[in-house]
Amino acid sequence: MVWVALAASLWCALLIVPWRPWLQSECLEADPAAVGSCGEGQVTVLMPARNEEAVIGQTLTALGQQGVSLAVIVIDDASTDATVAVARHSGLAGLTVIQAPELPAGWTGKLWALEQGRGLVATPYILLLDADIYLGPATVPTLLRKAQRERLALVSLMAAPAMTGFWDRWLMPAFIYFFKLLYPFRLANRPGSRWAAAAGGCLLVSRDMLSAIGGFGALRNAVIDDCSLAGLIKRRASGAIWVGVTHSAVMMRASGLSGFWRMVARTAFTELRYSWALLALCTMIMLLMFVVPVAGLFLGGTAVRIVALLALVFMAISYAPTALFYGQSRFSLAGLPLVGIAFLLMTYTSALWYARGVRSQWKGRAYRRGKV
Fold it and tell me: Could you say which of 117, 230, 291, 337 would form a disulfide bridge with 73 (CB–CB 3.0 to 4.6 Å)?
């Protein structure tokens, strides 16, 4: 009874904390009216690309439909497919394609590629855009208008999942839900708060601020580079930031289970600061919040079942705004305990990589402990 009551208390506490990380209140959608309010030549897009032939053409086409002229720099990161050819044949005005030099020790591939492109930027703002993020019309002007009106050094959007495959529909919204629990957007957006967060797939940043912190070299060894960048900027006196969700930016690539598993495992143990003690604590919390209520519902007496049901209701209430925002089935609420345990297992995979000497691995590269 004690454990079930504790689980219910934790879910209740999540619902009532003032910053409400489970809501989708931090939202920014593309506004066509923003096109007329933004001057030309304000934004350069930096797009690192490694084996992105399947999606980069659509991404570049979408950039041509923003309603403003953009300089676009694609930095090819040692692709072995037709990424470069597809980019060059996209027909996008203002496009430059460069080749990143060989990756040096102490850098991750994405940050090294971005640093090569940064030296070519002459505009006041830089949009960091992943090659698989499709932007709806007027998204870039909307980001720029928000940054200028609110004097923000960084504005980023958590792209919506493609929601095309089974695993993508079930797991990606939950990934965003858990990300917001770890990095509460409302706290991150609050000046003076120590919290900082960003979504690196679509991130607008002031060129001067980026230069002031030392460019991408200041975080060249960061695995969670987007939040690390947000943290560096926010710690500066003028570094106001904002992060939110949207439907106007969409992740075009839907991952199968193995791809999604690797994506989460890439940073999961980093989130725990490579601490085995924090992994043990995380395990206890996840089991308490996701397993104990389900077990109490089936194994306990009447009083235990009532409290367990209450915990599950609190859990469903906390996830409902995410499920609604991304158009998930109501059954996703009942499936959250299984998803929670799956994420715990992905964290174990990340810890196992670390135990074997690999800090992180992504897109065919393994970053060894002590070398990045």
Answer: 117
